[in-house]
Amino acid sequence: MDGTYTGVVDRIVDGETAVILLEEDDRVIDQLDVSVDRLPEPARTDGGVLSVTVEEGEVVSITDRPDETRARRASAREKLDRLSERLSDREE
């Protein structure tokens, strides 16, 4: 599975291991576990979006994609806001 993929930090385990979900065509296709030390500093958080290059089954580079991280977080916030509005409409 060589190539460059969009990776999303799913979670940090015990402050040492980052679980990264690799995506292709907006689908999760694989999962990688890497040392948190290999992540760019700003991406060391759940939901951080990365560009991950894999060669011969090994991660050779990880690059932070802050604009994509911000866009995904904004989209998630908008969805939550819409859901909470619908719920508050039901309560009235």
Report what the structure shows.
This protein has 92 residues and is α+β, with helices and mostly antiparallel strands. The protein has one domain (3-91): OB fold (Dihydrolipoamide Acetyltransferase, E2P) (Beta Barrel), CATH 2.40.50. The chain has 1 helix and 5 strands. The chain has one helix spanning 66-91; strands at residues 3-13, 17-24, 27-35, 49-55, 58-64. Strands 3-2-1-4-5 form a 5-stranded antiparallel β-sheet. A hairpin with a 2-residue loop joins β4 (49-55) and β5 (58-64). The longest helix has 26 residues, at 66-91. The model has no long low-confidence stretch (mean pLDDT 91).
Give a quick rundown of the structure.
This protein is of the alpha+beta class.
List keywords for this structure.
92 residues, alpha+beta, OB fold (Dihydrolipoamide Acetyltransferase, E2P), five-stranded antiparallel sheet, 1 helix, 5 strands, 46% strand
